[in-house]
Amino acid sequence: MDFFPIFFDIKQKPCLVIGGGEVAARKVSLLLKAHSTVTVVSPKLSRELADWHEEGKLTHIARDFEDADIDQPVLVIAATDNRDVNKRASELAQARGIPVNVVDDPALCSFITPSIVDRSPVQIAISTGGASPVLARMIRTKLEGCIPAAYGRLGALVSDFREKVKAKFTNVDQRRAFWESVLDSTVADRVYSGHEDEAAEALQQAIDAADSNPKFKGEVYLVGAGPGDPDLLTFRALRLMQSCDVMVYDRLVSPAIRELVRRDAELIYVGKARDKHTMQQENINELLVRLAKEGKRVLRLKGGDPFIFGRGGEEIELLAQEGIPFQVVPGITAAAGCASYAGIPLTHRDYSQACVFVTGHLKDGTVDLNWPALAQPNQTVVFYMGLHGAPTLCKEMIGHGLPPSTPVALVQKGTTPDQKTVIATLDTLEETLRTHTFEPPTLIIVGEVVSLKEKLDWFNPEDPQGQAVKAGRW
Ligand code: SAH
What we know:
By secondary structure, the protein is of the alpha/beta class. The protein has helices at 22-33, 47-54, 83-95, 133-146, 150-168, 172-183, 186-192, 196-209, 235-241, 255-258, 281-293, 312-321, 334-342, 371-374, 390-399, 429-435, 453-456, 464-470, and strands spanning 14-18, 37-41, 58-61, 75-78, 100-102, 115-119, 122-126, 219-224, 246-249, 266-269, 297-302, 326-329, 354-359, 379-384, 407-412, 420-425, 442-446.
């Protein structure tokens, strides 16, 4: 984050605008909307600024900028076409700790102004950190289209009732639950259809009828977050991520996905890296129970699918035992995600009629798997957690009858910008692992389908544009 977003109260406070042209006028118009006391320093004023001056909306100092002008204001905007003047104003303001913006000159700014969607009292500010104002405006246009103007009126209604609701519900979680139910009810519909009086009446009734101390029931959402790319989340996963009170997550959940969880949800990290479990599984199970019993909506976010090598079953067993409500949301498992993004169909009529997902995690250095069943022709075998034991896995597959030339793919951090794929064969994999460094999470795909990658590869994480071109979409 290059800039820290804040909303600044400048009501009745002095703001200085240096420059009197069209650009300055745009800024002055915003400052006036925020009810600040605006002074414009400029020998001349644009027609619009002159009108506002005549209407008594601003003070005009009709001369060039002087150093002493910087003494008063809480905010400075420099919009002259003389860079030296802008620079001088910026330096003086920054030396005094006064926030300053120089229009179209990021190097001289201590703050930048966002694109704004104004549904007062609701304000949405969009910034690309100066990277692309055009992109910010495009996003704004989209939001303008999909956020009804009535949201502003809804915000105003809520504001009128805030104190009443605060007095009724002393518990923050209960208060939030009340507002969530109200804002998704006929109260909001009434506002949207222009019936504010009825909406206010309905809201008052809802407050009167609500139990001020309800038995607030917690719930656990066991949610699959997919293999890494946030675009692969399900709608339901996203909805629950944005409504939870607390998130319990582990290492496999990518930062890009964690970003999408409700901002003020509490975050609890529980591990796990191989051999150094941050929290024992039993403790995680108990943690979920405890949080839910506190009345919280608990998001247990897991990489991939929670029921595929995710110990999701164990986690909800205890919840079921304790009578705690829960729901399970499937996710795209690593095998599906990595195979797709590596251009390897897991089944194919000509090569493979079956696909097996198996854990390659070695207990005490040995793998206790049904090797004869795994080492079958016309079958794809996907090893999860197999990186550490890969040489053993390959030896066993060969030892149980698969040709040593059977192709193998290693996919590291599949579906993310760090995806790396290397192709080997059962008898060269050990050597490949010596020459390439791989980090977890890495998936191993064994079977003839791997050879299709050469033809079907489409995802190039280093060239996001190329991905689509290769895939023939554009
Ligand atoms: N529940 C998860 C699997 C958890 S087991 C799922 O359904 O995907 C952890 C193993 O999954 C890792 O050791 C690795 O083999 C595999 N894995 C998970 N995410 C991966 C990714 N983005 N890229 C490659 N392998 C991944």
